[in-house]
Specification:
With 173 residues, the protein is mostly helical. The chain contains 6 helices and no strands.
Length: 173
C-alpha cells in the first residue's frame, strides 16, 4: 500500500465517519422520507377531491392504503442508512420506525375523531368504523415498515464512492 493510499484511507475515514447515534439518525431519515411521500400524496388527493366530487368516497380509502404502503419506504431507508453506517441492529431500528411515526399519526387521527365525537359533529362514518380504519392502517403500515427494513437489510451494502482526483499539496507536520 502506497503512502497516497494510506493518506486517502485516513481522509476517507475522517470525512465519511458514522455519526454518534447512527440508529436514531437512520430512523429519523426513514420517518422523514415517509412524511414527505405522505405529504405529496395528500396534496395530490386534495387536488382530485376538488376536481370532481364524485371521486371523494373513493379517494379516502385509496389514500389510506397508499400512505400505509409508504411504511415500506420508512423501513427501507432506515435499514439502508444503517448498512451505510456499518451497524447491523436493523430489528431495533425497524421497531422504532414501525412504532413511533405511525403511533404519532394514529394518535392525531384518534384525537380528531374524539373531538368530533365529543362535539357531536355529523360524520360520514361512525366512530367505531373510523377507529377500525385507523387501527388497520397502523397494523398495515407497521408490517410494511418491517418488510421494507428486511428488504433493505438483505441487500448488499452501498459501496464507498470512488476516490476524488488527488491534488498534490504539502501536508504540514
Amino acid at each position: 500500500m502506497t503512502a497516497e493510499d494510506v493518506a486517502w484511507k485516513k481522509v476517507h475515514s475522517d470525512v465519511f465517519r458514522p455519526p454518534m447515534f447512527p440508529n436514531i439518525l437512520s430512523c429519523l431519515m426513514g420517518a422523514g422520507t415517509q412524511l414527505v411521500a405522505m405529504f405529496f400524496t395528500l396534496l395530490i388527493a386534495i387536488i382530485f377531491a376538488f376536481a370532481d366530487s364524485a371521486w371523494r368516497p373513493y379517494i379516502y380509502p385509496i389514500v389510506l392504503v397508499i400512505m400505509a404502503l409508504y411504511g415500506f419506504l420508512n423501513g427501507y431507508v432506515t435499514s439502508r442508512n444503517l448498512k451505510f453506517f456499518g451497524t447491523t441492529d436493523w430489528s431495533f431500528s425497524a421497531t422504532v420506525s414501525a412504532l413511533v411515526l405511525p403511533l404519532f399519526v394514529t394518535g392525531a387521527l384518534l384525537l380528531e375523531c374524539l373531538i368530533a365525537w365529543v362535539s357531536g359533529s355529523s360524520q360520514r362514518y361512525s366512530f367505531g368504523s373510523i377507529l377500525l380504519r385507523i387501527i388497520g392502517w397502523y397494523i398495515f403500515n407497521g408490517n410494511m415498515c418491517y418488510y421494507g427494513a428486511f428488504k433493505g437489510y438483505i441487500q448488499k451494502a452501498t459501496e464507498l464512492p470512488s476516490p476524488l482526483g488527488r491534488v498534490a499539496r504539502p501536508i504540514p507536520e
